[in-house]
Amino acid sequence: MTDMTADTALNASTALAKRSTVLTPNFYSTDYAAMDRMDFTPIRKDWDALMAEFRADANEEHFERDRDFRKEVDALSPELREEFFDFLVSSCTAEYSGCILYTEIMKRAKNPDIKEVFEFMSRDEARHANFINYSLRDLGLGIDLKLLRQVKKYKYFSPKFIMYTVYLSEKIGYARYITIFRQLERNPHLRFHPIFLWFQRWCNDEFRHGEAFALMMQAQPELLRGRNKLWIRFFLLAVYATMYVRDHMRPQMNAALGFNPDDYDFQVFRITNECCKQIFPLVLDVEHPKFKPLLDKLVALSAINSAAKARGGIGGALTRVGVVARAAVTIARLFVLPAVHVAPRENVRMAPAW
User: Fold this and answer.
1) CB neighbours of 136 closer than 8 A, spacing ≥ 6?
2) 276-296 burial by CB neighbour count: b if 16+ within 10 A, else e?
3) Tens-digit pLDDT profile for residues 246-301
4) Would you tell me which of 12, 142, 209, 216 could form a disulfide with 170, CB atoms 3.0–4.6 Å apart?
5) What one-character-per-residue DSSP string does 256-309 give?
6) Where are the domains of the chain?
7) What is the pLDDT of residue 1?
8) For residue 210, how many C-alpha atoms fall within 13 Å in the half-sphere facing its CB?
9) Which of 161, 174, 343 is nearest to 236 (CA)?
10) Nearest 5°: phi and psi at 346?
11) CA distance 173 to 206
């Protein structure tokens, strides 16, 4: 199926989810045989305890919508409705991306530990994706997930890159959802859609998935040493910078939730850093005086890029080339800022405490 043919077959939500940019969730493949060769002997006690939590399935009946769920959102401003729509599509795509990756690893695995954990995690991610998609269907904008699986481009990541990125996405997902949940717990009048009521137990699933990847990395300590520290720093920066730029593209949704996007993102950074200290040998110094100004520069460059893309023509193309170069320099400056080094922990398991 060509891109042109595929696009004509997609509704607005599926077409939006299909996009592949540095700011949109991606679908991944990996070396499944290498994942299958993992040995959990060094962390067997902690691993078995985590598997018991997965088997208990505390959220088995949690993602059931009540009669109030189909809350009418027509009263929302067009700008807020559009940003909320973008948020739901992005969240659904991210959850479905995890579901696909975990399912593929589970299907190809012979190692019973790998088969079991990825079956549990794909179960959870499928629930999340379908739950969000029902909210989109309430708006008449549901994603065709089966078609999306066929037309979305896949990126290959080696197993260690999968470990770093997926661990980070699960932990930062927890931090994002719990920060929103706590804000609306304190200010229920700001809850403009009932989906936010489900965020606490939802983010606990994300936290538990992160725990699984933390134990996988603990069982492979070479992933946390030497040059791999540079990769860890790179992925931390990539995830944080992407989130910061993307969140600043949703001013109406931030305002509706009572958030200053700077404050919200830095709260998420702090929570994620505390989580990452369980396993990573370093985290970013988000309090460094140059950190925020450089992130703000990326936001400004993103706005210039969007305006140039809308303008088109040779002038717009040249502007976008310049933006890419300036963004690369800015990211490099962020990368070389001092990091916070973390002493290794014997017991890496954590509990969601925020």
Assistant:
1) 13, 85, 88, 89, 92, 142, 143
2) bbbbbbbbbebeeeebbebbe
3) 999 999 999 999 999 999 999 999 999 999 999 999 999 999 999 999 999 999 99
4) 209
5) HTT--HHHHHHHHHHHHHHHHTTT-SEEE-TTSTTHHHHHHHHHHHHHHHHHHH
6) 3-341
7) 34
8) 28
9) 161
10) -75, -40
11) 6
How many other CB atoms are found less than 10 A from the CB of residue 55? 9
Pick from 106, 288, 130: nearest CA to 202 = 130
CA distance 66 to 197: 11
Alpha helices in the chain (DSSP H): 3-9, 12-18, 32-36, 44-56, 78-108, 112-138, 145-151, 159-186, 199-218, 228-247, 251-256, 261-276, 291-311, 313-335
Residue 334: how many CA atoms within 13 Å on its side-chain side? 28
The number of residues making up the chain comes to: 354
Q: What pLDDT score was predicted for residue 8?
A: 38
Interatomic CA distance for residues 316 and 342, integer angstroms: 44
CA distances from 181 to 23, 177, 184, 202 (A): 23, 6, 5, 10
| pLDDT confidence bin for 6, thresholds 50/70/90 | very low
Placement of tokens 């067009």 in the chain: 78
pLDDT digits (tens, 9 = 90+) for 98-136: 999 999 999 999 999 999 999 999 999 998 998 888 888
The single-letter DSSP state of residue 196 is G
CATH class of segment(s) 3-341: mainly alpha
Using left for φ > 0, alpha for ψ between -120 and 50, and beta otherwise, residue 301 falls in alpha
Q: According to the model, what pLDDT value does residue 68 have?
A: 66
Minimum mean pLDDT range among 59-63, 100-104, 219-223, 314-318: 59-63
Residue 284 near residue 233 (C-beta atoms within 8 A): yes
Residue carrying the six token digits 């509990």: 351
The arithmetic mean of pLDDT across residues 25-35, rounded, is 89
Partners of 341 in beta bridges: 282
Residue 193: Cβ-neighbour burial (10 angstroms; 0-12, 13-18, 19+): middle
Task: At 310, list the tokens.
Answer: 């809308």
Give pLDDT, residue 260.
95
